[in-house]
Amino acid sequence: MANLFIPGPTDVHPEVLQAQSRPMIGHRSQACADLIARTQPKLRTLFGTEQRVFLSTSSGTGLQEASVRNCVSERLLVCVCGAFGERWFEVAQQNGIPAEKVTATWGQANTPEQVETIMKKKVFDSIAIVHNETSTGVENPIRAIASAARAINPDVIVLVDSVSAAGGVEIRADDWGLDVAFTSSQKCLALPPGMAFAAVSDRALHKAESVHHRGWYFDFLLYEQFLKRNLTPTTPAISLLFALDAQLDRIFNEGLENRFMRHKDLAARTQAWAKEKFDLYADDGVRSKTVTAVKNTTGLRIAELNQYLATHNMVIANGYGSMKDITFRIGHMGELDLHSLETLIDLIDTFSSQNTQG
Ligand SMILES: *Cc1c(COP(=O)(O)O)cnc(C)c1O
């Protein structure tokens, strides 16, 4: 395994692929309700919530849209420090939801102080934060930001895109006061793409009751009605539910703490190497534990590097959008281990020694 050093999709364990190939069951059958019921306590532990975790047959962006459709009636504050924060702002705009941005320089994190300053001037009933900004390799202090926002507006709804974090780094939705925290199947959870999961608080559901035009497909209140009977409003990706059940067991067999430690170790090794051979894009102290953005200081041709890595069944990610070739990114999330990371590093070093420009 261990080929995909990109920030999703990640490699899926063969046992989990196997689970996906089970015979189909009806989505209104007892077997399906049992399957969903089995995954709930495991998902709740993963997100650190005693409330509920919705299962969405969509990618993570679907839940970015769901969160703004369900949880904003007045004005949304979007914390932006990279491309996924920008996307969230666009999602709000395209849904006709009043939104404002508070922006950090790329490579830096959003701060509680930034949020305090703007929330003191204007009323925001919801705030959106990206847990781990995959485009820049920055982890945001979501706990401190959530707490700063709530100190100013106790009723504020805190929305967290934890797509490239949950399952790889700690998240405690209840303790940290996060009202909607979601992730995609294909990142740190190491499942095939196609589903997304959201820990949703009672406070968020209460808020949704007062919001008009929540849409249908992503209506949280409809999700809640069905989840009470261990069902989803529409046909879920049943094969992925089989895979989810199996993968959550694997995750808890490893142990959440061990899994977080493994991600931390992978990040430390990647970043120590990148600092020595190149430079790091993200500031010290806010660097991601699941993806590293490397400044391409030696002018490596990333497409050619990937052609070389492909001969060893490996791949890394180029920089995001306009940062292409100026940076490249190494995803170290999911099931990867230090051994395969060392192999990747050796390969990049070999390629570098043969291809460094002037
Ligand atoms: C990958 C990613 C997304 C998009 O997720 P999809 O599942 O592709 O919709 C959103 N936010 C972050 C932080 C991501 O890393």
Description:
Helices cover 44% and strands 16% of the residues. It has 13 helices and 14 strands. A hairpin with an 8-residue loop joins β13 and β14. α2 packs across α10, α5 packs parallel to α6 and α10 packs across α11. It is globular and about 60 Å long. The chain binds pyridoxal-5'-phosphate. The site of pyridoxal-5'-phosphate has 13 residues, from α3.
How are the SSEs placed, and which strands pair?
Blueprint: E1 4-5, H1 14-20, H2 30-47, E2 52-56, H3 60-71, E3 76-80, H4 83-94, E4 99-103, H5 112-121, E5 126-130, E6 132-133, E7 138-139, H6 142-152, E8 157-161, H7 173-176, E9 180-184, E10 196-200, H8 202-209, H9 220-227, H10 238-254, H11 256-277, E11 279-280, E12 291-295, H12 302-310, E13 315-318, E14 327-331, H13 338-355
Parallel strand pairs: 1-13, 3-4, 3-5, 5-8, 8-9
Antiparallel strand pairs: 2-10, 6-7, 9-10, 11-12, 12-14, 13-14
Helix pairs in contact: 1-10, 2-10, 5-6, 10-11
Summarize model confidence as the mean pLDDT.
Answer: 97
Oligomer: single chain
Would you report the number of β strands? 14
Query: What structural class do helix, strand and pairing data support?
Result: alpha/beta
Query: What fraction of residues sit in β-strands?
Result: 15-25%
Q: Helix content range of the residues, please?
A: 40-55%
Radius of gyration: 20 Å
Low-confidence stretches: none
Order of helical and strand elements: EHHEHEHEHEEEHEHEEHHHHEEHEEH
Looking across the biggest beta sheet, what order are the strands in? 2-10-9-8-5-3-4
